[in-house]
Amino acid sequence: MEQINIYSADEVISRIYVEDDIEGLEDCLEEYRHVFAVMDQAVAMQCPAVTQIAEVFNRRGVPGKLIEASEERKNMETVMEICEWLLDNGADRDALVLAIGGGITTDMAGFAASVYKRGVRFAYVPTTLLSQVDAAIGGKTGVNFDNYKNMLGVIRQPEFTYICPQVLESLPHRDFCSGAAEMLKTFVIEDEGNYEEAVRVLFEMEKEYRIVPEEDAAEYWCDCVCAHAVELTPLIAAAARVKAGVVSRDQFERGERRKLNLGHTFAHAIETLARREAMTGDAEVGKTDITHGEAVAMGMVLAARLADRVFHGDMDTPTALEERISADLTDCGLTPQCPFEIEEMAQAMHKDKKAEGGKVHFVLPRAVGDVAVKDLSVEEVIMLLK
Ligand SMILES: NC(=O)c1ccc[n+]([C@@H]2O[C@H](COP(=O)([O-])OP(=O)(O)OC[C@H]3O[C@@H](n4cnc5c(N)ncnc54)[C@H](O)[C@@H]3O)[C@@H](O)[C@H]2O)c1
Questions:
Q1: Residue 358 pLDDT level (bands cut at 50, 70, 90)
Q2: Which of 243, 259, 275, 305 is an active site residue?
Q3: Which ranges in the chain are annotated with CATH 3.40.50.1970?
Q4: What average pLDDT does the structure give for the chain?
Q5: Quick one: which of 13, 340, 356, 370 has its CA closest to 161?
Q6: Which secondary structure element, helix H or strand E, spans residue 313, and what is its range?
Q7: Contacts with 83 (C-beta within 8 Å, 6 or more apart), sequence order
Q8: Atom 2 in ligand 1: which residue has the minimum CA distance?
Q9: What pTM was estimated for this model as a whole?
Q10: What is the Cα Rg of the chain in Å?
């Protein structure tokens, strides 16, 4: 089992385990007497490794709560339901809330654990690629509020995050690709070698997947993930190591951690517009139903374009970097072209929770593996990207 630590000064504040199979989770739970499992109901039903662990919990009398993991249900109401369930089941200050699911589940259960009885301990078993490389690491928890993403939340570290790529075998292709976007984002920030290796492996998987007839695609994808697990595991561990390192140096996002938001100001605006569009009833195809990872992919391409215009003043031709990132994301199964005009995104960007004094910290890639943070007003960005 590989262990990656997150530190505050010299103290380990959170542990990340990367393990080939799910069995090792039981050992990690040994020191916790009162475990309360919060699970994504879809994962509990579809993921064989999670079903296996749920059976162990049943035998051991670990209370379990199933939740619906959707952005619509990622709200205070669900957090309060989790708190109520903890209270009804006698969870005291000694409790460990174990969240099993993707980023929606870990964000909500982590937040519920952080406010229940002024904070009890929690741990994660991330079941999406996105949560294994990003959401379940670093302690950001929260829910959507007033149609804005993750507006309410706290930063508080899980006891541990148990990453087991085996659980990805049931993850649908689209959600896998979403996670691939966050993985590539991490490597664009600081690891060119693993960026290239990730693009190679993901492109290989995508090529194999594309030639399979549609009716066999879901089953084939499961086999494809299993077949490539040996190559995926070190990449997931490498991305986790990058994020753990950044968080150790800047837990509360006062400086370096901002880099992890590469593409995210654009992505959050895209997600907000997509949700609004979905509510209008006459929504255009491609403008609704955009996952977080898909929005991050679009955001990264916009960030590369913005970087070029900020650093080189080139207003017309896409740069080699923008083209490279865009082509790589496409090869990895994503559609990185943003369906909204930059002007439409302005209002949502103004509301970005990272905005300070009218400026937003934009993360600008200079090359793969090298990014800079620059404070720009939304107006400046619109002017540059129009
Ligand atoms: N806290 C952070 O630092 C952080 C970072 C990035 C993203 N996030 C948040 O994470 C969320 C997105 O997370 P996500 O992409 O992991 O999505 P998710 O939790 O919505 O899961 C995506 C879909 O996959 C299903 N699923 C999950 N695991 C599965 C499995 N193993 N088998 C079958 N189906 C499975 C879920 O039921 C859901 O339908 C967003 O709300 C985003 O804001 C948080």
A1: confident
A2: 243
A3: 2-170
A4: 94
A5: 13
A6: none
A7: 112, 115, 116
A8: 135
A9: 0.95
A10: 20
pLDDT of amino acid 386: 85
Residue 317 pLDDT: 66
- Ligand 1 centroid vs 292 CA: distance in angstroms? 8
* CATH match for 2-170 among 3.90.550.10, 3.40.50.1970, 3.30.70.1020, 2.30.40.10: 3.40.50.1970
103 alpha carbon – ligand 1 mean position (Å) = 4
The stretch 8-37 carries a mean pLDDT of 96
What fold, for 173-386?
Dehydroquinate synthase-like, alpha domain (1.20.1090)
Structure confidence at residue 297 (pLDDT): 98
Residue of 39, 72, 107, 167 with the most ligand 1 atoms within 8 Å of its CB, for mutation: 107
Q: Which residues contact 196 (CB under 8 A, 6 or more apart)?
A: none
Residue among 65, 259, 268, 361 flagged as catalytic? 268
Residues of the chain with CATH 1.20.1090.10: 173-386
pLDDT digits (tens, 9 = 90+) for 28-37: 999 999 999 9
Through-space distance between the first and last CA atoms of the chain, rounded to whole angstroms: 49
pLDDT confidence of residue 353: 63
Nearest-atom index, ligand 1, CA of 105: 19
